[in-house]
Structure formats: structure tokens, C-alpha cells
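sry for the spam today, last one i promise. C-alpha cells for design, 135 residues
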């Protein structure tokens, strides 16, 4: 999704922000990846289920629950009303952060020494994403 959104939005000579809704083939490609991002939100709900099944209730923070509660409806509204245009930007950043996050989880599961220092960077990147998308 990250590569598809980046390529679709920037390699066509489109601006970083202020991209008009394109109903042509190029806009359809971006809309497809935004739609995939929306569907991925439901897969991401599984991490909450795994927390519950493993009885790791302390990981179900208020921020985690709020994020999961609002992201499905928010992205539904995006794809229902304007799946192209600037929608690629938030979708791409969120997808990128999830790549980093799940890489960290994988390193932690295999007890890699890289997982320790990476934990801080996951949080830093999440905060950067929030600021980049909220601005």
C-alpha cells in the first residue's frame, strides 16, 4: 500500500497536498489503495483480539481503543465521499507506520536485540505521523 500510494500520488507529478479528485485511471489506482487501507483497518482489529486472548489487558490503552474505534468509520467516510485526492497522504503514512510497527513486533517475537532500540523509534515515528497527518 505504501509503495502503491506513493507511486500513484507523486510519480504522476501531482502536488503533495491539494491534489484534486481524479476520476480517471490514475485516480482509480490511488482510490484502490485507499480502499485497501480501509479494509486493512478490520485486519488491524485482530491485534486487539490477540491482546484479549493473551490476557494482555494492559495493552488495551485508552488511546489504542479510541484509535480502533474511530478509524473504521473515518476511513469509511473517506472512501464513500472522496477516496482519491488528498486521501492518499494519511493512508500512506498510516500504512508506513504499521509496516514499522509490525516489523518491531516480529523482531520482538524472535527476541532480536534490535527490538529494544527500535521501540523508541516506533513511538517517535507514530508521533511524527500524527503531526504530519494532522497538519
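last one done:
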Amino acid at each position: 500500500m505504501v509503495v502503491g500510494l506513493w507511486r500513484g500520488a507523486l510519480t504522476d507529478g501531482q502536488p503533495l497536498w491539494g491534489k484534486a479528485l481524479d476520476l480517471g485511471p490514475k485516480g482509480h489506482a490511488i482510490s484502490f489503495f485507499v480502499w485497501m487501507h480501509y479494509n486493512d483497518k478490520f485486519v488491524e482489529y485482530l491485534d486487539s483480539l490477540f491482546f484479549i486472548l493473551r490476557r494482555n489487558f494492559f495493552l488495551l490503552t485508552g488511546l489504542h481503543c479510541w484509535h480502533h474505534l474511530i478509524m473504521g468509520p473515518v476511513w469509511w467516510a473517506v472512501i464513500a465521499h472522496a477516496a482519491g485526492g488528498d486521501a492518499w497522504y494519511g493512508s500512506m503514512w498510516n500504512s508506513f507506520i504499521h509496516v514499522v510497527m509490525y516489523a518491531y513486533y516480529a523482531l520482538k517475537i524472535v527476541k532480536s536485540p534490535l527490538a529494544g532500540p527500535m521501540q523508541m523509534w516506533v513511538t517517535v515515528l507514530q508521533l511524527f505521523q500524527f503531526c504530519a497527518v494532522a497538519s
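The helical segments are 2-10, 25-53, 62-81, 87-109, 115-134. ok im logging off now
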